[in-house]
Specification:
With about 230 residues, the chain is of the alpha/beta class. It contains 7 helices and 10 strands. Bound molecules: adenosine-5'-diphosphate (2 copies). The site of one adenosine-5'-diphosphate has 12 residues, from strand 1, strand 2 and helix 1. It comes from Bosea massiliensis.
């Protein structure tokens, strides 16, 4: 059983101006432990695909299993629960709360999960340690560099111990040196067993993945395995 099983997955939008097929019968598996880059031009369906596998949206056709769970059998509470338990999300613009410190930002997913205050604090500090930011726990986002802010966001994504990390252009707002540091972190987490799927426009970034999937016009255009370049060398 693969961690992700997509079968003829489609997403059609019905607009006043007509129908848009954002994703067109995409079938693929992603195995636990993989590090996958998703590429393709703007409008090719990358975000739609990520939203579907992230259980943020529902397909209009086809089937999707996440870690053996048939997602179409779940109601919206079940979907939210699955998301909280199995997935972590990372974004281009970090999406941190500006008025609270790094630790409080990382605690947020556990607030939703209902953990008590002491547990939240301990686990947030451990997650910040895991991304190399133990010393910055009480800084606010503004007091951190872009790369450090993205590390906080990654710690937040990791704090509920997800099986799968979904990252939409995670290095898009960073200079190339900082981007490499973030990729090295993803590679470390991947070696520790976290499955990573990241969207990128940047071929330099995609070199660091084990597998590269390309979309065009909502279809799967290519799917290649490669020797991942080490981001630390
Ligand atoms: P990408 O992430 O590769 O840029 P998207 O998945 O965002 O591509 O978009 C794929 C296609 O679906 C585009 O034609 C886009 O305009 C359309 N689309 C995406 N989201 C919506 C939406 N919420 N409503 C209508 N059309 C959408
Ligand atoms: P990306 O950076 O992946 O190219 P987009 O700009 O295509 O992102 O889309 C950003 C968000 O807007 C996505 O969540 C997508 O679902 C939504 N979206 C994209 N195209 C449309 C559209 N034509 N109508 C409504 N929403 C859209």
């Amino acid at each position: 059983m693969s961690l992700i099983e997509a079968r003829a997955l489609s997403r059609v939008y019905d607009l006043d101006s007509g129908r848009v097929t954002a994703l067109d019968r995409v079938s693929l598996d992603i195995e636990a432990g993989d590090l996958v880059a998703v590429m393709g031009p703007s409008g090719s369906g990358k975000s739609t695909f990520m939203n579907l596998i992230g259980c943020l949206d529902r397909p209009t056709g086809g089937h999707y299993r996440l870690d053996g769970v048939a997602v179409e059998t779940l109601g919206s509470d079940g979907l939210a629960e699955l998301r909280n338990r199995k997935l972590g999300f990372v974004f281009q613009q970090f999406n941190l709360l500006p008025r609270v410190d790094a630790c409080a930002n990382v605690e947020l997913p556990m607030v939703y999960a209902g953990a008590d205050r002491k547990t939240r604090r301990q686990r947030a500090l451990a997650a910040l340690g895991r991304v190399g930011l133990a010393e910055r726990a009480h800084h606010r986002p503004m007091q951190l560099s872009g790369g450090q802010q993205q590390r906080v966001a990654i710690a937040r994504a990791l704090v509920n111990e997800p099986r799968l990390l979904l990252a939409d252009e995670p290095t898009g707002a960073l200079d190339s040196r900082t981007a490499l540091e973030i990729l090295a972190l993803f590679q470390d987490l991947n070696r520790e067993g976290v499955t990573v799927v990241l969207v990128t426009h940047d071929a330099e970034v995609a070199r660091h993945a084990r597998r590269v999937i390309r979309f065009r016009d909502g279809r799967l255009l290519s799917d290649q395995r490669q020797e991942a370049a080490d981001a630390r060398t």
